[in-house]
Amino acid sequence: MQLGGADADEDPKGYGLALQRLTPSLQQEQARQHEVLQAAADLLAAVDTEIALQETLLQDALRDITNPRLRKQAALVLIRIANNGHAAAAYRLSLEVAFGKSIAGAQDDADHWLRLAARWGDPAAQVSLARQLMKGLNPALDEAEKWLLQAQASGVRGQESLLADLRTKRDELAALPGRAESGEAAAQRQLAQQLMDPTDPTDPQRVAQGMAWLQRAAEQGDAAAAAELGHALAFGRPGVAPDPLAARPWLDQAVQGGSAHGQAALAQLLAVPGATQSDAARALELAIESAANRSGNGLFLLATFLHAGVGGSRDVVAAKAVMHLAQVVGGELVRQHPDIWPQYQPTPDEHLPVQILRNQINDNLRGMPELLARRGETPAASG
Predict the structure, then answer these.
(1) How far apart are CA 258 and CA 294, in angstroms?
(2) Burial letters for 354-367: b for 16+ Cβ neighbours within 10 Å, e otherwise?
(3) Domain positions in the chain
(4) Is the pLDDT at 264 greater than 80, yes or no?
(5) Distance CA 251, CA 343 (A)
(6) Residue 301 and residue 291: Cα distance in Å, rounded?
(7) Inter-axis angle of helices 160-181 and 123-133, nearest 10
(8) Which of 54, 330, 347, 382 is 20 to 30 A removed from 209 (C-alpha atoms)?
């Protein structure tokens, strides 16, 4: 094959035209491709062979990526094929980045590959992306529906129930303002959460509206709303200036209502050294109560209190056991302070007692207050 026109002298065999047919990332391997093409009698057939080879390489990579000895090389092959525009490879790459052991990456990287796989037509990726878009305080239901319909059009069955859930959620969200206006506290709190969604750019007017809805719900005795309102006032947030004195009554109400979030927020407020409302002993009590209710924030605070001896004796072993559970449960404070984790790694001598205590606490979180109290009565336990 030979090109005519101006490019014929510079590209007599048509390498440029052939390379245009290759998917984007093969440009990273141009040296190898040029060798293949220069030796080929039929350039387009050589390119088609290379593209067809991707499926074989993908299956080999999927097999090998589960083998610890072959995992690293398989991951490199998977990345190469995904970069070549292979939709199924891009989807599997998104899963490996998010959940696997072979490829390091952030959630944003996993989301990037998931979107590419959906755009390139992988039905499983389209369904997975739709599920992701349906979550959150302000779900992107229209986009989620688009991906589900595309997956359905490609012949994938079983999306009817998911589409039905999506349409039900759309109806519920449309009805939410009316329910809030009618005085339903749970709807008022949910509407406030939407208006104050931290993943959205800050809009002062929306934040003010959200705070007003939280107050209306809290005034009706909604403990969860009182906790959110008190937390926002205690520590501030975009669009809300800190006002610890105004926060205290709402946090007290939340604690009386049994809110684990309120317990953790008040514990954090009372633990501030030198503050007007500082009360380290009460802060420790509240952190224990919140942690026993499986609050990630409560577990995090309790670990830091035990480590520093806030409100009681220092217990490093218990602190490290509790911090491990906080990492498992997650929460706002855990996400905000990833740098603190190395301080809570057990030393070789601590490893076994930390593991035993962690298992004891995890098996019976409700019994944690009594367990920690018994440890506090035993000087050797504090480490």
Answers:
(1) 12
(2) beebbeebeeebee
(3) 15-120, 133-166, 259-382
(4) yes
(5) 30
(6) 8
(7) 10
(8) 330
Say if residues 290 and 267 touch (Cβ distance below 8 Å): yes
- Count CB neighbours of 59 within 10 A: 11
Q: Do 96 and 75 meet the contact criterion of CB atoms below 8 Å apart?
A: yes
Q: In sequence order, which residues have a C-beta less than 8 Å from that of residue 242 and are 6 or more positions away? A: 233, 234, 235, 236
Pairwise CA distance, residues 107 & 101, whole Å: 14
Cβ pair 268, 303 in contact under 8 A: no
**CB-CB contact of 21 with 47 (8 Å):** yes
Q: Let me know the angle formed at the C-alpha of 137 by 131 and 139, rounded to the nearest 5 degrees.
A: 40
Residues 6+ apart with CB under 8 A from 289: 260, 263, 298, 369
For residue range 180-195, list pLDDT tens digits in order: 999 999 999 999 999 9
Comparing C-alpha atoms, which of 81, 104, 65 is closest to residue 28? 81
Structure-token pair, residue 108: 């944003």
pLDDT, tens digit, for every residue of 18-46?
555 555 554 555 556 566 666 666 656 65
Decide: helix, strand or coil at residue 184: coil
CA–CA dist 126, 149 (Å, integer): 9
Per DSSP, 101 falls in state S
Q: How far apart are CA 276 and CA 244, in angstroms?
A: 9
Distance between CA atoms of residues 280 and 272, nearest Å:
8
Point out which residues pair with 240 in neighbouring strands: 237
Residue 292 CA: distances (Å) to CA of 125, 230, 325, 358: 38, 21, 11, 13
| Spatial separation of the C-alpha atoms in residues 21 and 316, rounded to whole Å | 62
Tokens encoding 357: 């205590």
SS3 assignment, position 39: coil
CA distance 217 to 211: 10
pTM for the structure as a whole = 0.72
Its CATH architecture, for the domain 259-382, is Alpha Horseshoe (1.25)
